[in-house]
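Q: What would this chain look like folded?
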Amino acid sequence: MTLAELLLLYLAFRAKQVICDFFLQTQWMAETKGKPFTAGGAKALTMHAGIHGAFTFLLVVLFAPAFWWLGLVDFAVHAAIDRAHAVIKAQRQWTNQDNRYWWALGLDQEAHNITHLIYIVIIVLAAGGIVPR
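A: My prediction, written as structure tokens:
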């Protein structure tokens, strides 16, 4: 993999995160994914994490088709991170008026960034590392 391809892969994952977490996540998903599973929490979380898994699948198929399964991994990991984030905010009743609400959002986003970095490392190592050109 060239350095340019690595940069493109990184930027693609960053764009995927912004698109899926902020543009394609509805207010219903954001508000409901932390509720009990019987109160719609499971459906909201599954739909949101499914969008992430699908986008990761598409990205990986473009860059490293043998790792298509990372889409399934991303579905599970994204769901776990978001569920923990949503449940903690709900239990503590943090709103966007609380500093801790924003700290939690920042930690949530960083957890997703680290997840994407791990995917990128897997892909780069499988491609034989960075090839200078």
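Residues 3-126 form one domain.
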